[in-house]
């Protein structure tokens, strides 16, 4: 069962927004055994969208479209679908009532004709209820192919996928099983890992693939396979995992690397002991706190953090003694350790992580090279730190430092 | 001059990574007058990549490819390009020396044959120097079409675009001028704005387009045009802007909306007065601090922030009186204002922003509805706050709250 995703919108092609919708849709489809063969982004241009629909329908069974369902002139997805299906737009009364309801309840400006026109639907389409917005989704069938259109607003699309699209696809199509197992490693680069795995990889069964997913200092390895028998598939992938585990044992940080988000594993480990965490950030500037608070349940383990971007704030708020900064400079093991120690005391937490470094492009209040970062960890038993060189690219220094801090904490928690 | 972008990699099609490369490439191409007609993401699969290359070369003059240049088995871009061009791989000594240099200087593991093989290049290709990595870019010409391949690692790709690809494209192709003007508005939805602009939009010259770019509570409006005469083009777009300004005056937050990043405008305004900023965050969990520290120059206006996720931390660290929390609950105007006031005092800053709210999915330590957020602002003259309802979606509540806080601060700074 093959799907293609088409995202419509000039704003993607001029690079003003990043297409995050496709990744979400692809993830959700993969979970139900539907493979995405291609993702295509095209402009708000009638002929181009039409051609893209025609081409996609030659290759795929399911075509998912996002964008171009808004109330404005540049939103033409429904018109193009009408042409493709030889259909015309008619008013859908249930959709109209929902639009009127949303305006009454949530919108302060009066409802307009443009808003009401969003209730026009191709006559052959089934409207998919959009709880959060005025643009309904569409479900249209042609021979054995299904065309699904969803609004481009990410949270509206996500809700439509969950409530309308996935349940309908599960009902409509017989799908093979897809199984992934992802392992998070740290400390070795992609090619060094590949070299270790060379013999094993050469003998991998054809229905199983290995992918390397490097990301700012960590490499996740994903084994994935497709098959008609779920038990056999799982068994064969777990068997391959048993083979690589001893080869990579020293660098595996997390055998449940499916959580792209390492903070979920950290939360689980802290929760089991009812332990709490806090942070003290300099060069990561809030990135660590943001990572910990991104997911629901943050308050069950994360007390908070202090971002002391200015050197003086490290003294005033984190109580790092002036003499320590004077002697070692602000980018030093001593300052990182003081920051972690004091964050733990101030927040009354069990663990604390700190970062201090030069993210660049300028050196700031320290003579250390751009890219130098010290990461400190305070635990109930000890305080320690490590020094890293993360290169000269600001964004990369911040992200690598945050990832490395998460890894150091994870290692510390796992070693208990 | 038409370009297409092809991104290669299973990890995109199973949704494990979001393709941010395409947006960056599209942005940079637009700046030099090259339009991106289509973005296509395909798997690491020989035949599929080959077909995609063939199709793209029918439509576009410039084909940019990212991904599939790594050292591992699943990296096959160079092989496919060889087939497409009827070429074969030969060793490039300069590339090999660079790989050996990088390993000597930055990598602790020994260099392997897989790494050395990255110096194999199609004989007809020009290698594009990759300062930050072992995979060089490629530049290949066929009739009047150019094919460019770059590694998928974002910071390597960015550096290659800037130093190698864009200068070569500028030299090689005559391009029309593209001009954008983007205005940031707040307070009205997309369709309400469209209604106000209806008459004007109906009379827009054909070479100018208007796009609506909504994002968590703000809508940016982008006028864009393409033409052979730079002066005429700029003049006609500025003329249209003069027409819409009076129609939208009350909702325009920033006429230089080109900065997708509003913090750059805030930094400029604070810098002119040598004023400093700090934050105190609850529900935004570090998102605000991260936004302010994302760009270089943060230390010229941002002192730092405190993330008090736990209610107790608001008392202990931000000195919000227990009685005020008791009386008003932790999600209240009073607490938001205390947080802003005290952040300003603790950091000795001129301005401070605070957030306190229920991001959900659970209510936490307050009886206020999920989605309720109070944003506080402290200035040298006053402290005030506003209440907002940002819906029930956690991610959306955090992002909308952070954006709204930036807008409130921007309004306050502009009103001086």
From TrEMBL, chains A, B:
It holds the Pfam family CinA. It comes from the Bacteria. SMART domains: MoCF_biosynth (SM00852). InterPro entries: CinA, CinA-like_C, CinA_C, CinA_KH, Competence-induced_CinA, MoaB/Mog-like_dom_sf, MoaB/Mog_dom. Residues 4-172 form the MoaB/Mog domain. Belongs to the CinA family. PANTHER family: NICOTINAMIDE-NUCLEOTIDE AMIDOHYDROLASE PNCC, NMN AMIDOHYDROLASE-LIKE PROTEIN YFAY. This is CinA-like protein.
